[in-house]
Amino acid sequence: MIGRSKEKAVFSLFFFLICVFLMTEVVQGQQIWETGSYPDEAGFQERKKHLLQRLSEEPFGKKSQGTATCPDTGLTFKTWAVEGETVYSPFTGRAFTQGPTGYFGARERAKDGQIVRFGGDALKKDLIPAIARLMLQPSDSLTKAWLSIPGNLQQQYHFAAKNWARFYPLLADEMDPGWKKEFQQAVASYAANDRPSDGYRKYAPLSTPHDLVGEPGKLLGGNPKDGGTENHKIMWRTSAWVYAQYFPDTALISGWPVHEVDSLVENYFRVFYQKLLETGNGEYDAEIYYPHSLEGLMNVYDFAKKESSKELAKAIMDYFLATLAIKTYDGAIAGAQKRAPQQINAGGELSGMLHLWFGSNKISSDHLPSVHQLSSGYRPNKFTWDLYHKNFPLPFSMKVSRPSYHMDQPNQGQEYFYGSQNFGLGSIYVNKLDNPNQQVLWSLVVKTKDGPKTIGGGQPFHLGPGGHSPYTQTMQQENTLLLAVAGTSRKPEVPSAEYSSRASIGSKSLVKLPVPDVAAGTFDEWFEKARFQEAAWLFLPKDCGDISQKGQKIMLQTDQVYIGITPFSDKFYWLKSSGDRELKGKQKILEDYHVLVVEGGLSGYALEVYERNDFASFARFRAEFVNQSYFRKNEEKHVLTYHNMKGDNIEMTYNNLGLRARGKINGTALDFENWSSGACYTSSVLNTGKGYFEGNINGEIFKVSLKGIKISYEK
Fold this sequence. Notes:
Blueprint: H1 4-28, H2 41-47, H3 51-56, E1 66-69, E2 76-79, E3 86-88, E4 95-97, E5 106-109, E6 115-118, H4 123-136, H5 141-147, H6 150-153, H7 158-171, H8 179-189, H9 230-246, E7 252-253, E8 256-257, H10 258-279, H11 290-303, H12 307-325, E9 328-329, E10 332-333, E11 337-338, H13 349-358, H14 371-374, H15 382-388, E12 396-402, E13 413-419, E14 423-430, E15 439-440, E16 442-446, E17 453-458, E18 472-477, E19 480-485, H16 497-506, H17 523-529, E20 535-541, E21 546-550, E22 553-557, E23 561-567, E24 572-575, E25 593-599, E26 603-611, H18 618-628, E27 630-634, E28 639-643, E29 649-653, E30 662-665, E31 668-669, E32 681-682, E33 686-687, E34 692-697, E35 700-707, E36 710-714
Antiparallel strand pairs: 1-2, 3-4, 5-6, 7-8, 9-10, 11-15, 12-13, 12-32, 13-14, 14-16, 16-17, 17-20, 18-19, 19-26, 20-25, 21-22, 22-23, 23-26, 24-25, 27-28, 28-29, 29-30, 30-31, 33-34, 34-35, 35-36
Helix pairs in contact: 4-7, 7-9, 7-11, 9-10, 9-11, 10-12, 11-12, 12-15
């Protein structure tokens, strides 16, 4: 074991070499697609100061302890016992039998007394501060002992594996003799017949056991039925990729020889990248999952010994970040998302990650970044930086054809996005309910002096601004969005796939509800019934700006943006929290939002969004909005016609037999079959879909494609 001063010198040299490498590349002059073109290394270093230290001070190891209850006092305490073992109360000394150990607790002990299996997925979080602590204090024997528990080594499910794959190249040499062998044995035998999230629950059996390597011939090694989500597969496979380049030639990874794993997994990602360039990815702009996919890819970028591996990991990260950056405002994603929390842009890993790289607002001040980003040499390129900070001609429009989740069918969703300097508004037309709890159909992000504010809504099936209700449909033209809500028609004799998807959770009739009294004792019952209310809800953050009303028009004035809201019914009201009543469960959303409720058999609203600088004053905006914008509604034919201040005529026909509205914009019908000319992303600055990624910013054009095993960059 090396001395402490030498250990510190090793890690200092590691970070110094990364910084020197980056700064040298910048000095030599880089193309805008290269990592070395990142323009804010000094800012990055300043923002990350002390964060590794703070991360190392976070507690770990507590989640994986079970909970026991003293039979004498009823007080609980933590144990390392397995269910059925004898434990002793620290309060009275009474011996009693350990009951269920909880979601994360110990499940099995070997004959030598060591815990060989835990429940849950504690290492998703716990391994991060342990890595940080050992990076700063390599001789910390307690941390090393915890990292050597066989049950921890056995945890190679996706989140844990992604963390172990950062640990192994950085710190494996600092562990006690024999640790590498034990770790490699755990990796060699890893396979799981249940899901880490099962806990004490049991879902349907897996068609194929989960493991690090996956199934050859399947997208990222996972079958569509239950082979893992996109980010799960990325984490598993990138971990196998790193292990394969660091383990001895005789080692196995989930039963596969290392040399086979290296070429197999690299090919998975080569196929995946080619599909990104042709169809886009299924788990697009995923607020809560992109950070973990990026961390897995960072492991390959930082530690791969093969240049082809490193280049491929970089290209995929560049794609993820560029396509995310173009829709992001001050750390918040605008428009549609696949797999996002129901309270959109509430802050989390992605917010912290974007703050470190791009210097943007940090939505959640109490969230620490991952050790992956803090110790990585990867940086977003200049092109992505400019997209994120909107350093190109504005406003812009973008169309994106989204594939099916498993990327086997192109153009299964038609996304539209409009971006300006201080706001982004986007929406998507979908023909399938695919994980509706995490599907964001539309959202508006507005930049303010207090950080970005996100506006969303629809039929209140999910009782929040996120989630996809099958009763909600949208239509968008530039800065104007129409949202409509209506019931589902009776099942036709030959139902379409789109109808069947809608009816899977949207066959129930919508109901009229009275205006509630939030302070009344009946509000709990009302709120639960509201999941099927015949109404459209609009969620406006309470600290977003000043709300005013004139007749049937509502205006919102923020720091930099003016918003006009037109309810499609004269029956509307505000759902507000009351200081006389404690809100609970999903009702707590009312603590953060004013909620506009628009009732009716065909209900909804229109939004028009403008930059403040477009008008001489708010009074001028208000007058023009009240006098120039109007709508007509034909409830019998389910047609809404809206005329906005720009002079656009938007005709929306609500589709009771499906999920996508039909309609015309200035007389031209929506064409879902030929949505995006580039087959995926079509915009003035970013285009994909023809087998290459094209960037075009301020007159500088480049293309990225895959040629054989090489990533090709062309000006």
